[in-house]
Amino acid sequence: MKNICKSILDADKSILFAMITDNQGNFQCMDSRGEYLMPKELVKQMGGAWSAVVGGIFKQLAQYNGPFEYTIVKYQKATIVGLGVEEKYVVFTVKKDVSEELIEKVRKTLVTK
Questions:
Q1: For residue 50, what pLDDT is reported?
Q2: Does an H or E element contain 33, and which?
Q3: How many other CB atoms are found less than 10 A from the CB of residue 79?
Q4: Nearest in space to 104 (alpha carbons), one of 77, 80, 85
Q5: Which pTM value belongs to this model?
Q6: pLDDT at 101
Q7: Residues 6+ apart with CB under 8 A from 8
Q8: Please, are residues 52 and 64 in contact by the beta-carbon 8 Å criterion?
Q9: 3 state SS of 11
Q10: Which residues pair with 20 in a beta bridge?
Q11: pLDDT of amino acid 59
């Protein structure tokens, strides 16, 4: 599974951090370029909680709106993307803005692994 996180980082040099959890919030892997400053334990806790809570909310909304694709949260210093693929969630961080092309590239990386 660690190789998948590395492949996500390799998808684009703007990606600073990647983490995968299952739909229950169980941590699968995490990797960063070394520029990511949040403590890893905090990242694991938040990522797991994000996947469990958001996954549950989006699963309910999917009944009316179709399957969850992705969400983007923009901060002053970084943009965080949450992407759902099958029974997995990937959370990745980029320095600035994120394009739909990059999101699709990460999605394809996750599906092919």
A1: 67
A2: none
A3: 17
A4: 85
A5: 0.80
A6: 95
A7: 15, 18, 31, 90, 92, 106, 109, 110
A8: no
A9: helix
A10: 29, 90
A11: 74
Measured in degrees and rounded to the nearest 5, phi and psi for residue 4 equal -65, -45
Write out residues in the chain with pLDDT < 50, as ranges: none
User: pLDDT digits over 49-80, tens only?
Assistant: 766 676 677 778 888 888 888 889 888 888 98
Q: Identity (one letter) of the amino acid at 112?
A: T
Q: What is the pLDDT of residue 15?
A: 93
What whole-number distance in Å separates Cα of residue 52 and Cα of residue 31?
20
Q: Looking up tokens 């892997």, which residue turns up?
A: 29
Q: Which of 23, 8, 105 is nearest to 67 (CA)?
A: 23
Cβ-contact 81, 62 below 8 angstroms: no
Catalogue the E-assigned strands of 14-108.
15-22, 27-32, 70-74, 79-85, 88-94
How far from 66 is each of 35, 58, 59, 106, 107, CA to CA, in Å? 36, 9, 9, 20, 17
Distance CA 40, CA 107 (A): 23
